[in-house]
Specification:
alpha/beta, globular, single chain, seven-stranded mixed beta sheet
């Protein structure tokens, strides 16, 4: 008898639920729910204005999204509820949530609803940049060993800079919080009542390692006395292996999902990392690009090597039995959205509407007619700061070469090319540090919807790029980990590798580099590197100097 699993993919703006056949990964139904509060970057729900660089979310959106999508997807799939054996969750990370002793979000309490630090701080929240810099400087001064697993950098998007920020700026809320928890781990608690911290989230976002655990209490105390015992007081040392069972659906989980009690609930995962198994990729040398609002680059290796500027190096962090390397870019699809929302002329909007196209489709139709270099433009892809290689969120975007003859489609293409150059810099860093990239694969909405985008990437990287089979890759990944949580005796699998090979795979779509384009992009990339280092490594800090006037 067929068995099924459900994968939940919590992205930046919406959540998707996918019902999957555990035997072969066949996708039966998907449902999506857009968060009503989206990303709160200007004000709280009650109207209180937020400082610059804040990015918050409403936890009630996560719960409502769970209830709506699971019920709708299960109904549309037509499967028998009794044949569903597992449910898994992936989440954007770090998504940082203060809760009370009953895991109730502080932001939903009357006394804290007006406090920005009480809400979910998502990956785009960069108000912690100064705390990340202080933490990094202190770690360098003390020679802390954990720093080498993160490219020698501390990101403001990680757990401890946010704990540091809260402890200093909002000590009352810090004291009131019984726990600070990743939203993915919080959702697992909602389903099964178990606090099971994800190895992936702890490893990549909270400096945890299998060998050393969290940073020492002595180091944390040197940052702020309140942080000395934060791991035992407000986090948890119960870090759980990916692909294991966090618990079983309890009465609360039944109320939220409409599913039967007792279904296996998988340990949560990061939305990018969970995308590797659905591609059938389980060994070293494979680089996966998850292309969306931002881009995450996940690389598998067989041994641990230091890579400057890498976002994290975690044993078992992606596929158990391998070393998972993570890098990324903060602004990919986001930069294109910024452009069409703020810079697209009215005449272009009317032309797009007349042609029955979206704004992006119309600009793409014009941009794809341009040859590489034809626009005379070159951009830096730092519209939302630099995550890798520089890990500096105070850096900003740049466009060189504009004239009064510059067209919107030329700017649009230059923004895409800039993200491709940023990816190439990351690939080069891996290879320069002893991690050969044998295969490049891509998933995410952009990889499916925009052939021009993918061809530019193939030309800039001078590599073949294969595309995911699934259009819901993270959700399929969560369904794969759900099958592992269920186990073979219940119709699932006993290892992530086994589940990946049975349920994952790539499509027949492959983008091949075009030689004449490669030659032009090689020249432009050399110019990109000069700008990258000139503005990014301290020779000219004009971006930071003018940023203060915000």
């Amino acid at each position: 008898m067929a068995k099924y699993t459900i994968g939940l993919d919590y992205g930046t703006l919406s959540v998707r639920a996918l019902v999957v056949d555990a035997a072969d990964g066949r996708e039966l139904a998907v449902a999506e729910y857009e968060y009503p509060h989206a990303v709160m970057s200007e004000s709280l729900p009650n109207g209180r204005r937020l400082p610059p660089d804040y990015a918050l979310q409403h936890p009630q959106d996560y719960l409502e999204g769970l209830s709506v999508t699971v019920r709708r997807a299960v109904k549309d799939s037509g499967v028998d509820l009794t044949d569903i054996v597992g449910i898994g969750i992936d989440f954007t990370s770090n998504s940082y949530l203060p809760v009370d002793a009953d895991f109730y979000p502080l932001c939903l309490k009357k006394e804290w609803e007006n406090d920005p630090h009480a809400w979910v701080k998502i990956w785009k929240h960069h108000g912690t940049q100064s705390y990340a810099e202080k933490m990094e400087a202190k770690a360098v001064e003390r020679g802390e060993s954990f720093l080498k697993r993160y490219g020698g950098k501390v990101s403001p998007a990680w757990m401890f800079p946010r704990l540091y920020e809260t402890a200093v700026e909002d000590p009352e809320l810090y004291d009131a919080a019984a726990k600070f928890i990743e939203a993915g781990d919080w959702m697992v608690w909602q389903l099964c009542g178990q606090e099971k911290r994800s190895l992936s989230m702890a490893g990549y976002k909270a400096f945890w390692s299998k060998k050393d655990g969290y940073p020492s209490e002595d180091f944390l105390k040197s940052l702020c006395p309140k942080l000395e015992h934060v791991v035992d007081e407000k986090l948890s040392r119960d870090v759980c292996q990916l692909g294991t069972k966090a618990g079983e659906l309890n009465k609360r989980g039944v109320e939220l999902t409409g599913l039967p009690e007792g279904i296996a609930v998988a340990v949560a995962n990061i939305d990018a990392h969970v995308s590797m198994p659905p591609m059938g990729l389980t060994d070293s040398g494979n680089l996966l690009m998850i292309l969306g609002t931002s881009t995450c680059h996940v690389m598998l290796g067989s041994e641990e090597k230091e890579v400057p500027g890498v976002g994290g190096i975690v044993e078992d962090g992606v596929i158990p039995g391998t070393i998972g390397y993570e890098s990324g870019q903060n602004c990919v699809g986001d930069s294109l959205k910024w452009f069409v929302d703020n810079c697209m002329p009215g005449a272009y909007e009317r032309a797009a509407e007349a042609a029955g196209m979206t704004k992006n489709q119309y600009l793409t139709s014009l941009a794809e007619k341009l040859r590489p270099g034809q626009s005379g433009l070159l951009a830096l892809d730092w519209w939302n700061g630099n995550r890798s290689i520089l890990c500096d969120y105070d850096l900003t975007g740049m466009m060189v070469g504009m004239t009064i003859a510059t067209k919107p489609e030329e700017i649009y293409r230059a923004l895409i090319e800039a993200t491709a150059y940023g990816t190439r810099r990351i690939v080069d860093s891996f290879e320069e540090n002893g991690l050969p990239v044998k295969n490049v694969v891509a998933c995410g909405g952009i990889s499916k919807k925009n052939p021009m985008f993918m061809q530019i990437y193939a030309d800039v990287l001078n590599r073949e790029i294969r595309i995911a089979r699934s259009s819901q890759t993270p959700a399929l990944g969560s369904a794969i980990f759900a099958a592992c949580a269920a186990g073979a005796e219940n119709g699932g699998y006993d290892s992530v590798v086994e589940a990946s090979h049975a349920m994952g795979g790539t499509s027949d779509t492959v983008y091949h580099p075009i030689r004449e384009n490669v030659e032009i992009y090689d020249e432009l990339y050399a110019e990109f590197l000069k700008l990258h280092d000139y503005f990014g490594r301290g020779e000219n800090n004009v971006m930071k100097r003018i940023r203060k006037f915000r």
